[in-house]
């Protein structure tokens, strides 16, 4: 580039000097040899001299480096082109007239005029094109400037040259966020970036690589979090350097929400863990004293049964029964807490095979109630197999127990939807009134739907559905039976 | 069946209620036995090794071990017994109120010879102790001392 610049300037100077030489020779010849008045020859050559002065002025301007290399080359090319074209054309015409032995000055004037007109046209056209381009690019620039001015992110326009990375311009958002930093050293002008990142940004501006970092900015009005992006956009046309944008996107709200979410999740996990622990301890440690109560009441009955009256025996019976029921509830609680603590992994399960097994286990109950249990073809689901079995077992036994008084009919079906599988267990019992439909899933809910006498079966079903991120619900019209639905999402 | 020497049973149990229940249940059993009671894990080990106040104690034929005891719990005791070349042949029956699967598994991993859950009522308890007696002290052929 440097070389081209020198060659260009040399070519321009050469043309200037050559033409000056020719003009001076003409003056010398007119004045000294032909003996014409000096004034006449000076007047003759005044205009070309003035134009040449303009040429030298321009060369000087270019020499001082106020314009870029591309500019210098372009000026040189056009000048050389114009010079050579005019010399060739006028030389051609004069040469031919010379051969014809008849110089026709007005024709030469005409030809020169044609050259001038063509040159004027060419330069005019070129200028018009450039102006049009300039207009277009001004519009474009205005569009982008408006984007720059109104962007929701803080943006700084950077320039990298021999002096290092400097902030050239900032948008209003940037000024509002960080104050006016133009003129500040880069360390202060780009807030929240450490030396390492600044060095990376500097390298990236030179190589044209994009970079994104996250940073924390400790401002007086609170800590702010930013995603900072460096977007290089090429060479600097005016100076010898490269440019890039640096974008500060304020993600404080998102980070704070994330932190809050993390804290909430941690709290939830902790309280969940404590709850599991509580359920376990309760069911474990509560059993000890309970066993003492029931064992010694029992011992009392065994050893002193005969010596007490009937009423005392009845008291003892109540005490033993109470202890047994409490034992059953504690067992149920333990079972309930184990849905989460001792679940197996989720795998593809043939739900029909699982149901068949459950129906075999329930054979006795089904025979006892003279029940008919039918089912459709059931789809494959992704689930904890043993919990799916428990779910079917609880729902089917519940339906058999609460179906029609004599010989109940229960039907199990499964429907594959877009993103879930929905199982339905329908009975032909008295149904559940709408206001009780949610309550049957509560722990120890002693409604007429309880199972095993503890009111835990349906609560366990709900917990199993929850663990599978599914849902459980009832549809029932009084007198028309009840249908329990369980949805399990596909995975 | 010829009259046998009374069997020596060591009960490691901190709850006096359970000690009494076990004693009662063994009384109702058919087998002559001497029941020795220790109240925590450290005493258990001292008894088994015949240390301190337990010098000259008979070597037990069977250990009934509660899992939850003060100072040193049943799991640690089980580990010590089964890790000792001298004691590991003594059958240990874990007798506890815990039905937790992890307790059952852990006990068997530590080579407990059996794991029994204490039933809620006394008749059930007598039943279990009776079966225990029958199985470990009459049916099973134990290693000679």
Short structural description:
The complex is a heterodimer of chains A (491) and B (145). With 491 residues, chain A is an alpha+beta fold.
Number of strands of chain B: 5
Chain-averaged pLDDT of chain A:
85
Structural class per helix/strand content of chain B? alpha/beta
Estimate the helix proportion of chain A, in percent.
55-70%
> Fraction of residues of chain B in helices?
40-55%
Secondary-structure map:
The complex is a heterodimer of chains A (491) and B (145).
Chain A: H1 2-33, H2 38-63, H3 69-99, H4 105-150, E1 154-161, E2 164-170, H5 172-178, H6 186-189, H7 195-207, E3 211-219, E4 222-236, E5 241-250, H8 252-285, H9 287-304, H10 310-341, E6 347-350, H11 351-361, H12 363-368, E7 372-375, E8 380-383, H13 385-402, E9 409-416, E10 420-426, H14 457-467, E11 471-476, E12 482-489
Parallel strand pairs in A: 7-9
Antiparallel strand pairs in A: 1-2, 1-5, 3-4, 4-5, 6-8, 9-10, 10-12, 11-12
Chain B: E1 7-12, H1 16-28, E2 33-38, H2 41-49, E3 62-65, H3 74-83, E4 92-96, H4 101-109, E5 114-117, H5 122-139
Parallel strand pairs in B: 1-2, 1-3, 3-4, 4-5
Descriptive notes:
The complex is a heterodimer of chains A (491) and B (145). With 491 residues, chain A is an alpha+beta fold. In chain A, 59% of the residues lie in helices and 18% in strands. Chain A contains 14 helices and twelve strands. Chain A has helices at 2-33, 38-63, 69-99, 105-150, 172-178, 186-189, 195-207, 252-285, 287-304, 310-341, 351-361, 363-368, 385-402, 457-467, and strands at residues 154-161, 164-170, 211-219, 222-236, 241-250, 347-350, 372-375, 380-383, 409-416, 420-426, 471-476, 482-489. In chain A, the strands form three sheets. Chain A has a five-stranded antiparallel sheet. In chain A, strands 7-9-10-12-11 form a five-stranded mixed sheet. Chain A is elongated, with a radius of gyration of 49 Å. The model of chain A has no long low-confidence stretch (mean pLDDT 85). Chain B is of the alpha/beta class and 145 residues long. Helices cover 41% and strands 17% of the residues of chain B. In chain B, strands 2-1-3-4-5 form a five-stranded parallel sheet, with helices on both faces. In chain B, α1 packs across α5 (122-139) and α2 packs parallel to α3. Chain B is globular, with a radius of gyration of 14 Å. The model of chain B has no long low-confidence stretch (mean pLDDT 78). The interface between A and B is medium-sized, with 20 and 16 residues.
């Amino acid at each position: 580039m440097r070389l081209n610049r020198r060659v260009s300037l040399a070519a321009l100077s050469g043309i200037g000097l050559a033409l000056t030489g020719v003009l001076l020779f003409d003056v010398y010849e007119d004045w000294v040899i032909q003996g014409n008045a000096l004034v006449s020859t000076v007047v003759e050559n005044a205009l070309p001299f003035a134009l040449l002065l303009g040429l030298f002025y321009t060369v000087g301007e270019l020499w001082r480096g106020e314009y870029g290399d591309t500019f210098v080359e372009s000026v040189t090319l056009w000048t050389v082109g114009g010079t050579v074209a005019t010399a060739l054309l006028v030389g051609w015409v004069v040469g031919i007239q010379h051969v014809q032995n008849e110089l026709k000055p007005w024709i030469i004037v005409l030809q020169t005029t044609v050259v001038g007109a063509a040159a004027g046209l060419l330069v005019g056209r070129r200028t018009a094109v450039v102006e049009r381009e300039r207009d277009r690019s001004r519009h474009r620039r205005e569009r982008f400037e408006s984007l720059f001015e109104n962007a929701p992110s803080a943006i700084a326009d950077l320039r990298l040259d021999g002096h290092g990375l400097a902030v050239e311009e900032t948008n209003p958002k940037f000024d509002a966020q960080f104050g006016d930093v133009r003129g500040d050293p880069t360390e202060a002008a780009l807030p929240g970036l450490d030396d390492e990142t600044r060095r990376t940004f500097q390298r990236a501006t030179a190589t044209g690589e994009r970079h994104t970092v996250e940073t924390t900015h400790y401002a007086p009005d609170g800590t702010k979090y930013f995603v900072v992006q460096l977007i290089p956009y090429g060479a600097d046309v005016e100076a010898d350097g490269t440019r890039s944008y640096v974008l500060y996107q304020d993600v404080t709200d998102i980070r704070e929400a994330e932190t809050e979410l993390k804290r909430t999740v941690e709290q939830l996990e902790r309280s969940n863990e404590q709850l599991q622990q509580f359920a376990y301890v309760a069911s474990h440690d509560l059993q000890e004293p309970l066993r003492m109560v029931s064992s010694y009441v029992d011992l009392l009955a065994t050893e002193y049964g005969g010596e007490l009256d009937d009423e005392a025996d009845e008291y003892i019976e109540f005490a033993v029964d109470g202890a047994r029921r409490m034992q059953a509830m504690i067992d149920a609680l333990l079972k309930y807490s184990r849905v989460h603590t001792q679940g197996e992994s989720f795998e593809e399960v043939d739900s029909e095979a699982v149901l068949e097994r459950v129906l075999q286990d329930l054979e006795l109950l089904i025979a006892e109630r003279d029940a008919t249990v039918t089912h459709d073809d059931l789809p494959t689901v992704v689930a904890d197999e043993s919990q799916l079995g428990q779910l079917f077992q609880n729902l089917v036994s519940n339906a058999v127990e609460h179906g029609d008084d004599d010989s109940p009919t229960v039907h199990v079906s499964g429907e594959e939807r877009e993103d879930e599988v929905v199982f339905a267990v329908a009975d032909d019992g008295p149904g559940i009134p709408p206001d009780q439909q949610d309550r049957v899933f509560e722990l120890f809910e002693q409604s007429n739907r309880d199972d095993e006498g503890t009111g835990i079966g349906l609560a366990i079903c709900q917990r199993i559905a929850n663990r599978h991120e599914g849902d459980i619900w009832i549809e029932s019209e009084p007198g028309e039976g009840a249908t329990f639905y369980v949805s399990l999402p596909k995975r | 069946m010829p009259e046998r020497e009374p069997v020596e049973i060591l009960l490691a149990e901190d709850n006096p209620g359970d000690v009494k229940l076990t004693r009662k249940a063994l009384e109702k059993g058919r087998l002559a036995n001497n029941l020795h009671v220790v109240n925590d894990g450290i005493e258990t080990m001292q008894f088994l090794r015949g240390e301190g106040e337990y010098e000259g104690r008979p070597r037990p034929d069977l250990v009934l071990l509660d899992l939850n005891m003060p100072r040193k719990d049943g799991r640690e005791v089980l580990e010590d017994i089964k890790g000792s070349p001298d004691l590991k042949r003594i059958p240990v029956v874990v007798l506890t109120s815990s039905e937790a699967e992890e307790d059952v598994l852990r006990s068997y991993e530590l080579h407990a010879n059996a794991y029994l859950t204490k039933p809620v009522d006394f008749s059930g308890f007598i039943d279990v102790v009776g079966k225990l007696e029958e199985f470990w002290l009459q049916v099973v052929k134990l290693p000679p001392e």
